[in-house]
Design goal:
alpha+beta; five-stranded antiparallel sheet; four-stranded mixed sheet; 2 helices
Length: 151
């Protein structure tokens, strides 16, 4: 009888270990994340009023994608930022929901200047499974920018 209880206890413990291992593997699945954020500095200084009257076709905002070895590199060209962003840089966060990747690019806390400028912001996304995605770039000007990319 003691041997039978020992076998049941041992089987239960092995089941718990197996389930724990399965849960750990699922929990360890890599989530898409941002790395290596960089920019090319402040270009084309102007003030907000001049930007409001500017033809949006001039120095148009656009996004460039490349994919190599599981790393998706994105360069957001002509992104509008406050001229003082260089003091602390630009942060990038992403949210993946199905086939939509929402990208928030933002100036890190720091001083504000009374002008704005354009910069090319480059960053990488790792652990994003291959597929076709709609990328939504949340920008404060002129409006959110949306594009589709497959890799």
């Amino acid at each position: 009888m003691t041997t039978h209880r020992f076998k049941i206890t041992l089987l239960l413990m092995m089941s718990v270990v197996a389930l724990t291992g399965a849960c750990s593997k699922q929990g360890e699945e890599a989530r898409a994340q941002v790395q290596n954020i960089s920019n090319n500095g402040c270009q084309s200084h102007t003030d907000k009023e001049a930007l409001a009257t500017k033809d949006q076709d001039d120095e148009q905002e656009w996004v460039e994608f490349s994919h190599d070895g599981g790393v998706l590199t994105i360069t957001h060209h002509n992104m509008v930022v406050n001229c003082a962003f260089e003091a602390n840089g630009i942060g990038v966060s992403i949210r993946v929901e199905g086939d939509t990747v929402t990208i928030d690019e933002y100036e890190l806390d720091g001083p504000q200047a009374n002008c704005i400028c354009l910069t090319d912001n480059t960053f990488q996304i790792v652990n994003l499974p291959r597929g076709t995605y709609t990328f939504v770039f949340n920008c404060w000007w002129p409006s959110p920018y949306t594009c589709t990319y497959s890799f």
